[in-house]
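ok trying this again, last paste got cut off
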Amino acid sequence: MRSFADLDEFAAAQGEHLGYSEWTEVTQETVNLFAEATGDLQWIHVDPVRAAEGPFGAPIAHGYLTLALLPAMMRAIFEVRSIGMGVNFGLDKVRFSTPVKVGARVRGGAKLTNVRATPAGTLAAVRMTVEIEGEKRSACVADTLSLFT
């Protein structure tokens, strides 16, 4: 994990790749729990038998489940000390380029693309790329925004 003493040190890393999270397996249980929580019970996610015969050959994780993994991945990649708090502020752009099949392992990579002062605090843009172990194409690229105070 990369650790920054404060927001000034963090801002000085603008343009740098900050590192990677550990690999984590996307299990059917995780997909099912996410489906239940969100009400998205589409068969390509929750019916392994039918999904095996479907277009992906296996059940796949929800795209929004992949997004929901980003905060934990980011916490594993970097921290900024000496702040009051950091909150998710939003997303500028998200693309899902490859589906994540149940049983696959994923990890996140973070690049600090922008840091700027705002009246509400320091706004940081981090491009998160979610990789699938053994796949050439990423699962997701998301330009995340975090507000630090």
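PB: full thing came through this time. Helices lie at 7-11, 28-38, 43-46, 48-52, 63-68, 70-77.
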